[in-house]
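Recall from the previous lesson that a structure prediction takes nothing but the amino acid sequence as input. Here we apply that procedure to LytR family transcriptional regulator from Micromonospora haikouensis. The sequence below is the only information supplied.
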Amino acid sequence: MPVHTSRRPPSQEPVGAVARVPSAIPSQPRSGGRPPADVPARKRKKRRKDPLWARLTVVFGAILMMTSGIAIVGSKAFISQATGNIAQRNLLGDAGKSDAEGGASLDGPIDMLLLGVDARERWAADDVRADTIIVLHIPASHDQAYLISIPRDTEAQIPAFKKSGYGGGTDKINAAFQAGARNGGGWEGGAQLMAQTIKKMTGISFDGAAIINFGGFKGVIDALGTVRICVSHEVKSHHMSYVDGKPMWNADAKKTGKPMTPVVHKKGCRDMKGWAALDYARQRYGLPNSDYDRQQNQQQLIKAMAKKATENGTLTNPVKLNGLIKAAGKAFVLDTGGVPIIDFIYTMRGVTGNDLTTLRTNGGTFHANASGTKESLSPQTMEMFQAIKNDKLAEFVYANPSVLSTRK
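The prediction returns the following tokens.
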């Protein structure tokens, strides 16, 4: 992989309401790949004029909302204004790419960490685990995107983290977020420790990251109207029931004292409203491969959102686009490494909805560690992460087609 020496501009001030982020810690520049403020702009590498820029990919958070063969609506100024309410924080800490790994350059491969949290108002900010862990890889060609989920129960060596007072240890990887969020670390600290844990495990450094509040996803899907989801196995919801025909959280439904009818997601493809799509993507109990099926269902949801964003003129209508990105601002906390969101949008607009490929870890099923008591990443999965690091993922997938997700 070629070595890029260009640097990112210095980290900008956070954008958006701080109240959305359970942390009072201000953004700090990362070590490695962060230039001092006095680095002259003329020394930074200019962006490549890519002919694929005839197409557009709109990115909110790190979730790709993709179009194919249509022109961007409005100007860069409009998109910058629309994305201005997406909160930005330093979510990577020391796990950001160094200069030797490409630093701030968006010309090479782009790797982003997506962390899904299922936070609810009654939960404390430091009592949330990131049960959805996805690596988004875009090769240097910028004409393809891959989603790779890391199993939540994977045994990991979590490094010490001074910000939260965590001394380090061995635990399930989803515990890294909670360990980093303790003692005032907040979601920012949780994401930083998760990123460092993944880097320690896989060797991958990141260009950016996003925390996705799945509760906030409902607003994004509602702005889209519905999304097309294919249910591969009928499953009864572990979280929601109908009361008088209205879907409710089970805890709230019980308070009504009225009869509760379980929400059941039946096999087949259909257009789902926000609450139904999110509820289905949350399920793991009752599915043949438990969390692995949930991983694929969550990847399917992201891809369905990306596809739906290209329909009904959503991305060519200023009112619809503005409403959609405002909804995204309530669902995401983003780190672009100091690079303006608009630069990510224009850099990756050569990727279309059909170019988003979802991959499976561990062959889509539980992989026990040497003792047989906990889960680990299989040798094939470790090879896949090495291919990501070396920007050879397309070749790896071609040689190992079994890693392709069975969800469409």
